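Hi everyone, sorry if this is the wrong subforum. Our group has a chain we'd like a structural model of before ordering constructs, and none of us has done structure prediction before. Sequence below.
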Amino acid sequence: AEHAAFTVATGVPVYFCDPKSPWQRGSNENTNGLVRQYLPRHLDLRTYSQADLDAIADELNGRPRQTLGFRTPSEALEEVLR
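Answer:
Right subforum, don't worry. Here is the predicted structure as C-alpha cells:
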C-alpha cells in the first residue's frame, strides 16, 4: 500500500505485474506451488496453528532457490538489508 515510501526508504523498486499474466510472476508462481506441497487447495486452514504456519514458512525460506544463485530467500533478504 505504501510502495512509493518503501522504494524511497530502501532504494528497492517495486514492480507490479499485469493482471492475468502469470509468466511475469515466475518466482511467485513457483512459491505458490511449493506452498501447495504443505497446504493443498480446499484445505481448512483453521486446523493449523500459527506455529504450524510459521514452521512451513521457515522451511520454505530455508530452501535454496536457483533464481537466487542457490541461496535461501532468508540469505538473499539478509544480503539486501545489509
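For your construct planning: Residues 3-81 form one domain. The chain has a mean pLDDT of 90.
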